[in-house]
Amino acid sequence: MKFRQSAPAVLIGAVIVVIATVSIASNLISHRMAASFEETQFALMGQIMQSKLSGAEGKAMAAAEGLASMPAVVKAFSEQDREALLTASQGTFKVMHEKHGVSQAQFHLAPALSFLRLHNPEKFDDDQSKFRQMVVEVNRTNGIRKGIEVTTSGIGIFGTLPLADNTGQVLGSFEMAMEFGPLLDELKKAYGFELALFINEKILHDTATSLKGDIFNEQNRVGPYIKFYSTHPELLRRLVDSGDINITEESHYLRDANGVPHGVLLQPVYNYAKKQIGVVAMARDFSATRSADGQAIVWQTLLGVLSAMLLAGVVLIVLRGLVTRPMAVLNERMAALADGTHARDLPGAETWCKEMRALAQNCERIATQADSNKSGSGDAS
């Protein structure tokens, strides 16, 4: 084993191991930071959805309170004059439908007998007690209620309040509902999400008897759910399947669609009675995060390779300049002394490190002493 070969190999190997360890650790940290950022994005997506739903409930309640406070509406309802009530209400409802996404508006007599649907005036006098718990509770407690419910015409985000005459006598209730479609479209426009609402097929089929369109088909069926609305049907079909959607609590995952990584958040949808009736899916393009993570790994790996090469070069230069080259010169000098021959002077010794210069000086002392001894022996003879 030669020091000139083994020492650089050992040191360069150690440098490579250290650089590789640091690079791997750096890559892991970078990957974890990217994963942490994605988790933050999922949490933010969930908060945005819940905030939007809460805002829609508030808008529905405000709209219901505004229309229910109109004197002509109160008078017509107290007299149970359906035609007069429709005349007094339909103009305001039309404006709210076109400008604010209000999809349903309905007057009830206790406990939940439909008196007038502004969105479907021809249908009335049907008892909704079995599936409209919110209406039943409002008429039972004379308090306001907000929440999501499935009705005969679909699903809405409701604000429901008791309706009283001028004397304070409670006459029944009135409600307005926001549509889910415009709400999801607003989220897409504001944040770039793609969204879909899935509703339990049995609940929707049994309750939404006036639902228009052929929504109950294989293309919309995902496990036990029917895709009620989607901002991008084709994309959501690739991102959400029957194996994903059977959830009872919020979940998220990453999935590629057409080569683009997406983060998908699934949230259970509960009706006013706290029964799960569906799932809302939110998808966001995570390609920027993934690309940044990949680029960071590439650059960190490249930096590690360049650092290893640079340090290996430094090791070779230092060892050869400060150790192996002086050792070779000194070895040549000591070999000459051992052979009893005259060796040349030590070239470049003045540039050596302090320790090597000291060793060279000792070597010269030995050479001088050897010459003195040789001269003394010659004189004696």
What does the secondary structure layout of this molecule look like, with pairings?
Elements: H1 3-68, H2 71-78, H3 82-100, E1 102-109, E2 113-117, H4 133-141, E3 145-151, E4 154-164, E5 170-178, H5 180-191, E6 194-200, H6 201-207, E7 221-222, E8 225-230, H7 233-239, H8 242-245, E9 251-257, E10 260-270, E11 276-285, H9 287-339, H10 354-380
Antiparallel strand pairs: 1-2, 1-5, 3-4, 4-5, 6-8, 6-11, 7-8, 9-10, 10-11
Helix pairs in contact: 1-9, 2-3, 9-10
What are the main properties of this structure?
381 residues, alpha+beta, Beta-Lactamase, 6-stranded antiparallel beta sheet, 5-stranded antiparallel beta sheet, 10 helices, 11 strands, rod-shaped
Shape descriptor = rod-shaped
- The CATH topology of the largest domain comes to Beta-Lactamase
Number of spatially distinct domains:
3
What is the CATH superfamily label of the largest domain?
A: PAS domain
**Hey, roughly how much beta strand do the residues contain?**
15-25%
Can you tell me the residue ranges where pLDDT is under 50 for at least 5 consecutive residues? none
- CATH class group of the largest domain: Alpha Beta
Count of DSSP helices? Answer: 10
Largest sheet: 6 strands, antiparallel
Give Rg in angstroms. 42 Å
Main sheet: which strands, in order across?
7-8-6-11-10-9
The end-to-end distance, rounded to whole angstroms, is: 45 Å
Based on helices, strands and strand pairing, what is the structural class? alpha+beta
Q: Can you count the beta strands?
A: 11
Specify the helix fraction band: 55-70%
Secondary-structure arrangement, i.e. CATH architecture of the largest domain: 2-Layer Sandwich
By oligomeric state, this entry counts as single chain
The mean pLDDT is 85
